[in-house]
Amino acid sequence: MAETTELTSDITIIGGGLAGLTAAIGLADHGFDVTVVDRAAQEALTDVSYDGRSSALAFASCQLFEAIGVWQYMEPYAQPILEIRVSDGPSLLHLHFDNETLGDGPLGHLVENRHTQIALFERMKELDNLTFLAPTKVADIKRDKASATVNLEDGRVITSKLLLGIDGRGSMVRAHAGIPTSKIDYKQHGIVCSIEHEFGHCGIAHERFLPSGPFAILPLTGNRSSLVWTEKSHLTETIMSLSDRAFQSEVQRRVGDFLGDVKIIGGRWAYPISLQYAHDYVAERLALLGDAAHGIHPISGQGLNLGLKDVAALIEVLVDARKVGLDIGSTQVLNRYAQWRTTDNASIYAITDIFNRLFSNDIEPLMLARDLGMAAVDKIVPLKNFFMSHARGTVGDLPKLLRGEKAL
After folding, report:
1. Which range (68-82, 250-264, 347-361) has the least confidence?
2. Residues 6 or more apart from 341 whose CB is under 8 A from it?
3. Cβ neighbours, 10 Å, residue 41
4. Which of 80, 110, 279, 320 is most buried as measured by Cβ atoms within 10 A of its Cβ?
């Protein structure tokens, strides 16, 4: 597409990562003209060294990707999660979820973020009403009652009815709007790497609660798994500076021998962990989604899934508004999105915060209480099924896309 100085679209999105590009594709698939701006080039976003993380995509999130035509490009790289086993350090008491209990598909899928990003770009090529501008930076944003205007550093100007900030925890869109945030620093880092192992994982995801934080072993395709090792921040630099041999030895010790011999594949990354949330999700002609609106502890694996719920809800709100002739950037329309997502997200903030504080310690009375609690939940079928439904993303007032339906 030839570059022009002035561009007009229905919606401008700042941020072309996983949530941002999913939103763009979903909106374009529902007939909106969309322009996406990102400061990173497409090649950088899909480079193997850019993001070493994998995401546990809930069943409902996978239905969203199916509904907007992305799943066909993701499926070859997606490992079904058939069981989840939660344990508390060396305790013999545990919590076990399996997909056969509910009987309608896996609990979710594990997909490397890089492969999801590649799949999104493949689907993007098929949409003529989606423009991707990268690498480029935003120079200025102006919003008024009629429109939102984004001035780029390369001289191009984009005018639209609605601006979406899906540009991560350090969102410049949120800062421009003057929306305050609250933040809790857990003084933890998530150390991420992938391993190859001798024995098969059988599609089982393991989460072990240790005094420093959860240690997750998440199944990838083949005899591979993704590790998310939560550690106290003051120890992270020491761990990350270990030699390859010493790091692998420590990983093998923590994983144990149930997967046989373990080999580190690829790099290792460390990410600071905190809880952060915006006080408002919307402002004049503007809405925040994904990490720009909220970032949570990875203890539940729900971070990206929350962002995808934002995406599905906003698409449905905008489609409904268009049906009755409302301005998609109006306060009335955006407030519906904010009200829909605020309550659901707030409950997840609270749950992940409480679980992290409850499990990231070795206080004996708490250890006993949480072990007995897990064992009790494992035996109470209705409660256990509720938690499984929650893990699958099928609890609450679901947008149509999360049910696998178009929002039309």
Report:
1. 347-361
2. 281, 293, 309, 310, 313
3. 13
4. 110
Q: Measure the N-to-C terminal CA separation of the chain; round to a whole number of Å.
A: 28
In total, how many domains does the chain have? 1
Measured CA to CA, the distance from residue 228 to residue 193 in angstroms comes to 7
- pLDDT, tens digit, for every residue of 43-67? 989 888 888 889 999 999 999 999 9
Taking only the tens place, the pLDDT of each residue in 205-252 is 998 888 788 899 999 999 999 999 999 999 999 999 999 999 999 999
- Provide the residue type at 283 as one letter: A
CA–CA dist 16, 111 (Å, integer)? 18
Residues contacting residue 388 through CB under 8 Å, at least 6 positions apart:
97, 101, 102, 107
Residue 369's pLDDT band, with cuts at 50, 70 and 90, is low
In the 8-state DSSP scheme, what is residue 302?
Answer: -
User: What is the extent of the structural domain holding 350?
Assistant: 6-79+108-183+275-360
CB–CB of 79/221 below 8 Å? yes
The percentage of residues in the chain with a pLDDT greater than 90, rounded to a whole number, is 71
- Look up tokens 């090529």; give the residue: 125
> What pLDDT score was predicted for residue 370?
62
Say if CB 36 and CB 130 are below 8 A apart: yes
Total residues found in the chain within this entry: 408
- In this prediction, residue 360 carries a pLDDT of 62
Q: Residue 293 belongs to a domain with what CATH number?
A: 3.50.50.60
If pLDDT is split at 50, 70 and 90, which confidence band does 2 have? Answer: very low
Residue 92 lies in a domain: no
Mean pLDDT to the nearest integer, 142-161: 97
Domain assignment present for residue 229? The answer is no
Q: Do the beta carbons of residue 25 and residue 69 sit within 8 Å?
A: yes
- The token duo for 158 is 């984009």
Q: Is the dihedral of CA 96, 53, 274, 399 positive or negative?
A: negative
User: Which residues have C-beta within 8 Å of that of residue 191, sequence separation ≥ 6?
Assistant: 227, 228, 229, 230, 231, 236, 239, 240, 268, 269, 270
- Asked if the structure places residue 331 within a domain, the reply is yes
Separation of alpha carbons 4 and 308, rounded Å: 31
> Helices 381-391 and 364-379 sit at what angle, rounded to 10 degrees?
100
Pairing of strands 54-58, 262-278: unpaired
Spatial separation of the C-alpha atoms in residues 154 and 131, rounded to whole Å: 16
pLDDT above 90: residue 100: no
The neighbouring-strand residues paired with 205 are 84
Task: Write down the pTM of the prediction.
Answer: 0.91
